[in-house]
Amino acid sequence: MGCAGSTPKGSPEGEATKKVRKPKPWKHPQPITIGQLRQMRDEFWDTAPHYGGQKEIWDALRAAAEADVSLAQAIVESAGVIVSNADLTLCYDERGAKYELPKYVLSEPTNLVQDS
């Protein structure tokens, strides 16, 4: 246990302050419309709290996923989220609960098509 200003060994900033970045481009197995993508996202966020962890952290992760990068950084820091993967696909809360986010809730696929 260190003082309030200490950081983990070997990490100048500490794990909790890892810089958030946009996910790398990805492709859905088949072309997908924005409506289908929204439905997938809604289904994920509706069921995510059932996978464990705290609802407040899931809410913060959703807000971060829907925000621009600088605001997402502020959201995860204020919620005490420990960012393991800078693209937010893997995070932990202060109690060690794991939060995995699929890329489709974080960004749009390269093969997104117009709704008909």
From TrEMBL:
Region (Disordered): 1-30
Protein name: DC-UbP/UBTD2 N-terminal domain-containing protein
InterPro entries, sorted: DC-UbP/UBTD2_N, DC-UbP/UBTD2_N_sf, UBTD1/2
Top-level division of the source organism's lineage: Eukaryota
Pfam families in the cross-refs: UBD
Organism: Brachypodium distachyon
Lineage per the UniProt record: Eukaryota, Viridiplantae, Streptophyta, Embryophyta, Tracheophyta
Domain DC-UbP/UBTD2 N-terminal, chain residue ranges per copy: 17-115
